[in-house]
Amino acid sequence: MKIRLAAPLQSDSVVDGFGIRTVIWTQGCAHNCPFCQNPQTHDFNGGCEFDIEEIKEEIKNLKKQDGITFSGGDPLFQVDATLELAKYAKSLGFNIWCYTGFLYEDILDMGKKNPHYLELLEYLDVLVDGKFENALKDLNLLFRGSSNQRLIDVPKTLKYHKIVLIPESDNIIGSFKEKKTELYI
Ligand code: SF4
Fold first, then answer.
1. What distance in angstroms lies between residue 128's CA and the mean position of ligand 1's atoms?
2. Ligand 1, CB cutoff 6 Å, lining residues
């Protein structure tokens, strides 16, 4: 299986989720949000194609990363490859975030035709959903560009069958840092 990426894996991001994360920048997006910051990632023929096994190998060799973040572009336009990598990363114990221009509710609908969308949700810890809306842009927001976008706690959302958001207090960041410290002692 192949995946089309906009860039090589970035292994040191601190702005795409909690902790130090490796970002998988997928190529291809049809949402066309005005003022998108990554217009070069829209072309479905742009970027470069990689064998999925090559990307798995890179994930396997990551050291001291808190998690993997799928971004783009929109990873859901390559749902099969994203699912395969999410499964693999999860099997290695990585925490997984995914950014998408689709809404969580859209994904449930798309899952009626292609169950891989629903299966992908099972491997995600956080989904950052929704298009970027310039009128709602706010530089103070945590890990997203506009206030319509949601940081969805996917395991809890699946468990309770209603959208559960990640609280944005300092406490949640603090508790995450403590957890991270315990992990690497
Ligand atoms: S979903 Fe993301 S990559 Fe796609 S157009 Fe919107 S902001 Fe840009």
1. 12
2. 29, 31-33, 36, 38, 41, 72-74, 101, 131-132
In testing the pocket of ligand 1, which one of 32, 36, 106 has its CB within 8 Å of the most ligand atoms?
Answer: 36
Mean pLDDT along residues 20-44: 96
pLDDT digit string, tens, across residues 92-114: 999 999 999 999 999 999 999 99
Domains and CATH numbers, the chain: 2-184 (3.20.20.70)
pLDDT in tens, 141-152: 999 999 999 999
Sign for the pseudo-dihedral over CA of 164, 103, 110, 37: negative
Cα–Cα distance, 19 to 65 (Å, whole number): 8
Atom 3 of ligand 1: nearest residue by CA position? 73
Would the pTM of this model clear 0.70, i.e. be above it? yes
